[in-house]
Amino acid sequence: MQKKYLLAPGPTPVPDQALRAMAEPMWHHRTPRFRNLYKEVTEGLQEVIQTSQNVYCIGSSGTGAMEAAIVNLIDTGRKTVVVRGGKFGERWGAICQAYGIEFLPIDVTWGEAADPAEVARVAKSDPAVAAVCLTLCETSTGTHTDVKAVCDALTDSGVLVFVDGISSVGACEFRMDDWGVDATIVGSQKALMTPPGLAYIALSQRADAAMETCCRGRFYLDLRAYKKSLPKWDPPYTPPVTLFAAQHESLKMMRDFGIQNIWQRTADFGKATRAALQAMGLALLSKAPSDCVTAVCLPDDVDGNEVVAHMRDVQGVTPAGGQAQLKGKIVRLTHMGHIDKFDILVGLTALAQALAAQNHTVDLGKGVNTFLKLLGE
Predict the structure, then answer these.
(1) 294 and 353 inside one domain
(2) CA-wise closest residue to 47 among 255, 188, 265
(3) Of 257, 284, 315, which closes a domain?
(4) Contacts of 180 (CB under 8 A, 6+ apart)
(5) Which of 107, 157, 251, 376 has a CA that sits 20 to 30 A from residue 134's CA?
(6) Which of 160, 108, 168, 123 is nearest to 144 (CA)?
(7) How does pLDDT run across 34-53, given as a tens digit for each residue?
């Protein structure tokens, strides 16, 4: 029987403690038991996001919380600036377009990061701009955005900063309050080590004020309902109870380890993974690589779709391939959440074997030695 390894950038592996919590008999959410759990999950999220502000929990994928930011904070007649450097940056624009909200796009070459000064220039060029929409880790390219630098460039502009941190908050350094982020979106299935189905959004005081005055229609995603119910720890709609139970366990693990230790661990894994791949003779896609996921370019003489399929179906190691114009050209490996160094070594080995199956040889030994040396082994 073949052991399976999940090394895609989401969903990521879920710890056994969280899985066991989901397997308990079903219980009711309008009870003190759930209210206590809901409170502790919210407080754990505040620690992960580094905020003292309210965090609202929504039963949805991360995209639901992105949409909640738009419909609750962008009033009629206002515009946004959308940084589009990959599939998930493009999603911000697609949500705005669905609601008839005009946005000013900043199109960035895939694999490159946005220039904070340019983002600020565009945001300040039109007084109708209400917010800038960013992606902390553009998962489709493995690229990191310097959110702090963007926030600094927008100081005193009156423009809100929205951050899609779905695939990075809880893995790489992020300080919502200190940096001045106004809306932070996180998903349960990435660094937070929980199955898909829960999305979180934290709002600054400025964003909270915008929510109260926004005239745009909304119902299930109306964050005012979540805010109203929060003091009693009683969600406005039926929550996915088993997912909350799992998230509670994963957050306890993160709290015990320490969020800054997690940031350092992920950074160490990311650095070692990138160096190992380069030592194997492969090139990285991103010029501003994220510590959460690495996108590695595949040689021209191999079929990238076959590489992913071989890793998954023959070796039991599931990475992610490329999207859109990168389909068949890259492989993406995660090093966040419930991933350890041995998982990454398995991923590197599986990649080397999948390339060998197409008669392309890489120096796996050099890659492994580089990886272990950088981790001090």
Answers:
(1) yes
(2) 255
(3) 257
(4) 151, 152, 154, 155, 161, 204
(5) 251
(6) 168
(7) 999 999 999 999 999 999 99
